[in-house]
Amino acid sequence: MSQLPHLAITLGDPAGIGGEIILKALADSSITENCYITIIGNRDYLQTTYKHLQQNSNLKPQDLANPENLDIIDLPSPTSLTFGQGNVDTGADSFNYLQEAITLTLQGKFQAIVTAPIAKSLWKAAGYNYPGQTEVLATRAGVDKFGMLFVAKSPHTSWTLRTLLATTHIPLAEVPSTLNPQLMSLKLDLLIECLHQDFGIENPTIAIAGLNPHSGEAGQLGVEEKQWLQFWLEEERGKRPQTQLIGLIPPDTMWVQPGQAWYGNYDYQIQSQAADAYLALYHDQGLIPVKLMAFDRAINTTIGLPFIRTSPDHGTAFDLAGKGIANPNSMKAAIQLGVELATIRNKC
Ligand SMILES: NC(=O)C1=CN([C@@H]2O[C@H](COP(=O)(O)OP(=O)(O)OC[C@H]3O[C@@H](n4cnc5c(N)ncnc54)[C@H](O)[C@@H]3O)[C@@H](O)[C@H]2O)C=CC1
Ligand SMILES: NCC(=O)COP(=O)(O)O
């Protein structure tokens, strides 16, 4: 019998909802039965979260795992915890949790890292100048080709939405000048490799969005499609006969088919032949539809790393911290996908 995968879960910013969604997820035996889990964070913070939620919310005792029964790598912290009020110290703590998880994973202790959310602004305040956890993971892993892929399985139809972002944490104004044929080909390479390796899809169909309204309307509403994106796509079609590349799809209608596949609603003329994956050109072009459809269950996974990393799709939700009402489903889905991918890769 093969061994169960061992996952590290980082606590994220301790003032956010990370502790709560971890304790809720680990109270569910269907989440923990197929893996070993070690939390990388701070035992006192988890105990404080546990006790606070037991005493100040409507949660029942069985809704939360007791930190006393969990395997925790306990990293000391200089500060006491105020829910919803992250600061320089909680920013630094959350950065250290991630660093420790990466170090131990690179040493072979864990097969996957699941990260709870951090506040990017508090990393910056603490002197860590990374746009997000993705970039730290890539830097420490020594890779310069990586991507941010969002995966979500529909509760209505079981269809899986996969959305890769061509650009990620950059200002909107920098998107047109950051996109170029090399970057697009690199993202497509990563996506095809991931669909093959992690999802068993040999000859995928991939839909690619345009950048401008109506994909530029022949240059009238934007020039990037006409200047180079369409040529790039034709060239890729020639190079990749096994992959069906659909596009450039006007961004406003790109999400109609996935929406129908997600909800199982095919009651008008657009036949549902949803793609295996969607390539969005910038953060909000891809994430607004993902979060509309699947905010409570989408997973953010970093592709191109030598190890598995998954994460809930949401942030620290400081506005909810300490109230007991944070939804743990995206964290549960992130743990489940971490286990699935680790199991697949262990067999390879
Ligand atoms: N992977 C990560 O570490 C991510 C971190 N962030 C960080 O999180 C911080 C806050 O970002 P926001 O844009 O406000 O996004 P957010 O996802 O934290 O919150 C957006 C809205 O969704 C709600 N929400 C979030 N998670 C929820 C859950 N599990 N259950 C119920 N409601 C939930 C919040 O209450 C809020 O109303 C920022 O500093 C950002 O950098 C944001 C996204 C991902
Ligand atoms: N919106 C996605 C996001 O912020 C992911 O951030 P991270 O996983 O790189 O920390």
UniProtKB/TrEMBL annotation:
| Lineage start | Bacteria, Bacillati, Cyanobacteriota, Cyanophyceae, Pleurocapsales
Which residues are listed for a divalent metal cation binding in this entry? H169, H214, H283
Q: What is this protein called?
A: 4-hydroxythreonine-4-phosphate dehydrogenase
Q: What subcellular locations does the record give?
A: Cytoplasm
Which sites bind substrate? T134, K291, N300, R309
- What is the additional note? The active site is located at the dimer interface.
Q: Source gene? A: pdxA
Tell me, in one coarse class, where this protein mainly resides.
Answer: cytoplasm
* The protein's assembly and partners: Homodimer.
Keywords, A to Z? Cytoplasm, Metal-binding, NAD, NADP, Oxidoreductase, Pyridoxine biosynthesis
Alphabetized Pfam families for the sequence:
PdxA
Query: What is the organism of origin for this protein?
Result: Stanieria cyanosphaera (strain ATCC 29371 / PCC 7437)
